[in-house]
Amino acid sequence: MPAPIRLRELIRTIRTARTQAEEREMIQKECAAIRSSFREEDNTYRCRNVAKLLYMHMLGYPAHFGQLECLKLIASQKFTDKRIGYLGAMLLLDERQDVHLLMTNCIKNDLNHSTQYVQGLALCTLGCMGSSEMCRDLAGEVEKLLKTSNSYLRKKAALCAVHVIRKVPELMEMFLPATKNLLSEKNHGVLHTSVVLLTEMCERSPDMLLHFRKVWLLVPQLVRILKNLIMSGYSPEHDVSGISDPFLQVRILRLLRILGRSDDDSSEAMNDILAQVATNTETSKNVGNAILYETVLTIMDIKSESGLRVLAINILGRFLLNNDKNIRYVALTSLLKTVQTDHNAVQRHRSTIVDCLKDLDVSIKRRAMELSFALVNGNNIRGMMKELLYFLDSCDPEFKADCASGVFLAAEKYAPSKRWHIDTIMRVLTTAGSYVRDDSVPNLIQLITNSVEMHAYTVQRLYKALLDDISQQPLVQVSSWCIGEYGDLLVSGQCEEEEPIQVTEDEVLDVLEGLLVSNLSTPVTRGYSLTAIMKLSTRFSSVNRIKKVVSIYGSSIDVELQQRAVEYNALFKKYDHMRSALLERMPIMEKTASNGPTEIVQTNGETEPSVPDTKLPPLITQPANQANDLLDLLGGNDVVPVIQTTLPTKPASAGGELLDLLGDLSLSGGPAPAPSVPISQPPFLLDGLSSQPLFNDISAAIPPMTAYNKNGLKIEFTFERANPNPNIAVITIHATNTTEADMTEFVFQAAVPKTFQLQLLSPSSNIVPALNQGSVTQVIRVLNPQKQQLRMRVKLTYTHKGSPVQDLAEVNNFPPQSWQ
C-alpha cells in the first residue's frame, strides 16, 4: 500500500478547493483511505493518519472512528505517538464515551514515567477530560507530582488538581498539604497555577476559606508577592508592555477579593497594597487598565476604607474618558453596581456619565441611561431631567420605552412641584407617547386629579397639545379625560399660571368628535373621547348636540363604544334626573401601589393592606347618598365591607349587590363617608398562608354553632384557627336544605365591624340540594387583631320554587374560643 500523504500536503490540497462540495469530496476520499489504513493495523503511519483526522475534526467533519486509534498511540512507547494520541483523546473523547475509561491505566503509567514531558502530556489530558471516576483513581499520582521539585510538573499538576476538585470536591483536603509551599516558589508559572488552585478551593469550601484566612494567613503572603511584582525591576521574561507579569497580578487580586469579602482583618491587611497598585499602575496601555479594573473590583468587594473606595470610583471615572469603547462600557457597568453604596462619589462624575448618552455605541448609551437614572435625586432632578428629556427626543426607538418609564418614576419620586411634575410627564407623552407603559395614563390622570389648583392650567396645556398632535394615543387619552372633567374651566378661561386661551364649547366638541372619527384613534381612545363628550353634557349648554353624537354611536360596530353609547342614551332618556349626579367631577384619588405586592399602610396604629386602584375611564359613578346607605351595615361608621376574591355568580345590580345588605332598613346615625368601590380586589393579605399548614391543633377546641335556621335553610359555622397568625379565625359555613325543592342562585354575604377584616372565599356551589342531600360550603377568614367579641351581619339570597327569597340576620353568639 502506498504511503499516505503528509498532513501539510492534505492542508494544501484542501485549501485549493473552490467550493464546499469539492472540499467535502476531498475529505471523504481521504477519510476512506484513513479507514483502510486503520483496518490493516498499519502502525507505521497511524500517527500521521490521526493527525490528519484531527485536522478534519477541526474543520467540522466527523472523526469519531479514530478514537480507538488514539488509545493505541497513547500506549505506544514513542513520544511523538503519545503526543498525537493524547491530543486526539482531548479533542475526540469526553466522559460521555465509555472508551475514555480504557485510558486510565495508560495515564497512570505515564504519570509515573521517567520523562517529564510524557508526565506533562498525561497531566494535561487528565486535567482536560478526566471523568470523576478517573479523577478518583488518579488523584494520588497528581498529589505526588504537586510535591515534586520540578516546576514544569508542579504547574501542570496544580491545574490538573483544579479539575480534580471540580469533579470530586471531597478530594480537596488531599491537596491541602501539597499547596502549602506552592506560594514560596520563585517560578511565575507555578505561582500562577497555585493561585488558581487556591482560588478554586476558597470558592468551593467555606471551611477551606476560613482555614486560609486564619491558619495559613494567606493574605500577607499574597500581599508580599504582589508587592514584589510591583517593585521588581524590568524582567524580559515576564514583562508585558512595561508591567511585570500582569496575568499573575490579576489572579492575585481576584484571590484577595475572595479572602477579603466580609472579613475586617483580611481587608485591613490588603488596603495598603491595593492603594499602591491603584496609584502606581501605568494606564497608557490596556494591560494597566486590566489590572486597575481588577483592583477596583477588589476594593469594592472587600470592607475597604472610604478613601480607597473614592479612589476606585475615580479610576472608573478616568475609564469613562478612555477612547476604547470596551473600557468605557466596563466603567459604566461597574459604576452602576456601586452607585447604591457610594452615591456621592459617583455623583462627582455625573457630567461625564451624561456625556456618554451622546455616544454612538448602543451598549454604552444604554448603560449611561441606566446610570443617569440611578444618579437622579432631589438636588439634581431639574438638571438631570433636562438632559434625559433631550436624550428621549433624539434617542433610537429601542430606548424610548425604558427612558420614558425612568422619567416617570424619577419625576414621581423627586418632583420639586406639581406643575413641574405635570409638565415633565406631558413632555414625555408629547415626544414618546407611543412608547410609554400602559399604566402611564391612569397614573397621570390620578396626578392631575389630586392637583386641584392645577386643573385649569393642565386642561389648557393638554388642549393645546391635542390641537398640535393626535398621533400619541396616551396623550390623547389623558387629554380627553381632562377635557371631560374640567371642560368648563377650559371654556371659562380661569387659568392663572399662563395666559388663558379663548375657546368656545363648539370648538372643544369639534376636537373630541374629530378624535372619534380619526383613523389614528384606537378603540380605547374613542372610548375616552365618547365618555368625555358625555361628561360635558353637564358642563356645557350644548346638550342637544351631545345627544346627537351619543345616539350616532349606539349602532357602532365597536362593541365597547356601542355599549357606552347605549348606556349614555339611557341616561338622557330614562334617568335624566340622575345624570348630573352620575357625571359629577371625580373626587381626589388615594395613591396606592400601582403594581407589585400590596403596599402596607398604617391606619390607627394597625397595618392594613392598601388596595391597588384599577383606573379606568369612569362610566357611571355611585351617588354619594346611595353608597352611604349601602355601607352603613351596623348603624354606625365602623363598618368594613366584605372583600370577595371572586365575582358572585349572580350578576350585580346597579346598586352594588355586594354591599347592599341593609338596603331596606332605616339607619340611625350620620352617614359614613362613601369610599370608592374598586372594580377588582387584590389577593387578601392573608393569602401567604398557603405556604404553611393552614390550621393548627387549637381548632378542635372551638365548638360549631348554628347561625341561621329558617324556611328550611340551615346555616352552620365550624371554626378553625389559621396558622401561623392566631388572630385569624377561619369560619366554614355549611348550608343545608330540608325542603323538597332545591334552592338555586344561592348567595351568602357577610359584613363585620371596622375593627375586623373579613374575606369571603368562593362557595362550593350556588345550589343547595333538597332533602339534605348535600350542602354548600364557603370559607370566611376574619382578622381580629384586637381580640374583640365577634359580630357579623349576614344576607342570604336564593330562589326557591321559582320565587326569589332574601333575608337578613345578625349573628352575635360566637363561641368565645373563636375570637379570644
UniProtKB/TrEMBL annotation:
| InterPro entries (alphabetical) | Adaptor_Complx_Large_Subunit, AP1_complex_gsu, ARM-like, ARM-type_fold, Clathrin/coatomer_adapt-like_N, Clathrin_a/b/g-adaptin_app_Ig, Clathrin_app_Ig-like_sf, GAE_dom
Which BP terms from GO are recorded? intracellular protein transport; vesicle-mediated transport
User: What keywords were assigned to this record?
Assistant: Cytoplasmic vesicle, Golgi apparatus, Membrane, Protein transport, Transport
Q: Tell me which GO cellular component terms the UniProt record holds.
A: AP-1 adaptor complex
Record Pfam families: Adaptin_N, Alpha_adaptinC2
Tell me the ranges covered by the GAE domain, including all copies: 700-815
- Tell me the membrane topology, using the record's own terms: Peripheral membrane protein
Report the subcellular localization.
Cytoplasmic vesicle membrane; Endomembrane system; Golgi apparatus
Q: Which family does it belong to?
A: Belongs to the adaptor complexes large subunit family.
PANTHER family, from UniProt? Answer: ADAPTIN, ALPHA/GAMMA/EPSILON (PTHR22780)
Q: What is this protein called?
A: AP-1 complex subunit gamma
Q: Which organism is it from?
A: Hucho hucho (huchen)
